[in-house]
Design goal:
Blueprint lengths: L7 H7 L4 H7 L1 E5 L1 H9 L4 E6 L1 H6 L1 H10 E6 L2 H7 L8 E6 L12 E5 L5 H13 L4 E5 L8 H6 L9 E4 L2 H10 L3 E5 L16 E5 L8 H4 L4 E3 L12 H17 L1
Parallel strand pairs: 2-3, 5-6, 5-9, 6-7, 8-9, 8-10
Antiparallel strand pairs: 1-4, 2-4
């Protein structure tokens, strides 16, 4: 059992807290029982798994699955788990996994979500969870957004990260135009219109385009939208959280498409 936080393997895993290290090694962290369960459920490959003896005793079936699917399995002490986890109170298991190429979202789709310059990992993880719940066909983020495999994104997605087609785009404008060429209608939100989102026909294939938490969409991206709509709010509220806006828009599209 590994008990030293200075062990070379442990020191290397801890480096994956850094986005730069994740990109260079093409590895990322999976933390906690639920994310490990979800990874195993879809046969996502695991490289190194570290867990405490207590965790092993509490999860014999998952231990067996993990043992069969990972390249390296190590029992470690509580202090070691705390040193490699990004959470304050880890539940006893941390794994590394390869940064596989995501299954890119299809261009021919009924509902696609495109996000520009999303900075908060909690927001992105929540949006991924919501998109999966709304049966979105795919989600794209701009290259300057927070990493899709940021540990906080993974945790906030509640495991739905593994069940949604996602992609990173270097050129959102060209991506949006590609969808439009396939007959997909692009909808963005703005406060500068009198048309509420529920008053627009969203039954045809739709792409929802949302922007940064603070600045919103750039003028160039906003100009690409086939239709701009507003989410009505009280005069005392300046804006909505982007995760909330995404949920309202996605579920309105699904409501109309299924009615």
């Amino acid at each position: 059992m590994l008990t030293s936080t200075q062990n070379p393997l442990i020191k290397q895993i801890k480096k994956l807290h850094s986005p730069k290290e994740r990109r260079e090694t093409q590895l990322f962290l999976l933390e906690g029982t639920h994310l490990i369960q979800e990874a195993c459920a879809v046969n996502y490959p695991l490289e190194t798994v570290c867990c405490t003896p207590t965790w092993q005793e509490r999860h014999p079936e998952l231990w067996s699955l993990v043992s069969d699917s990972c390249d390296r399995l190590e029992l470690v002490g509580d202090e070691v788990i705390k040193s490699i986890a990004t959470t304050v109170n880890p539940d006893g298991i941390v794994a590394t996994a390869p940064r596989l190429a995501f299954a890119k979202p299809p261009l021919r789709a009924n509902l696609t979500l495109v996000l520009a310059t999303i900075q908060d990992p909690g927001n992105l993880g929540t949006i991924i969870r919501t998109a999966a719940a709304a049966s979105v066909d795919g989600l794209w983020v701009s290259h300057d957004s927070v990493d899709l495999d940021n540990p906080k994104v993974l945790r906030a997605s509640a495991g739905q990260w593994f069940r949604l087609a996602m992609g990173v785009s270097d050129n959102l404008a060209e991506l949006v135009k590609s969808y439009q060429q396939q007959g997909v209608r692009v909808i963005s939100t703005t406060s500068h219109t009198e048309t509420s989102y529920w008053d627009v026909d969203l039954r045809s294939p739709t792409l929802i385009l949302l922007g940064n938490e603070g600045a919103g969409l750039s003028p160039d991206l906003a100009a690409l939208a086939d239709r701009q709509v507003k989410i009505p709010m009280s005069a005392t509220v300046e804006s909505l959280n982007v995760g909330t806006a995404a949920a309202l828009m996605l579920y309105e599209v699904r409501r109309q498409q299924r009615s």
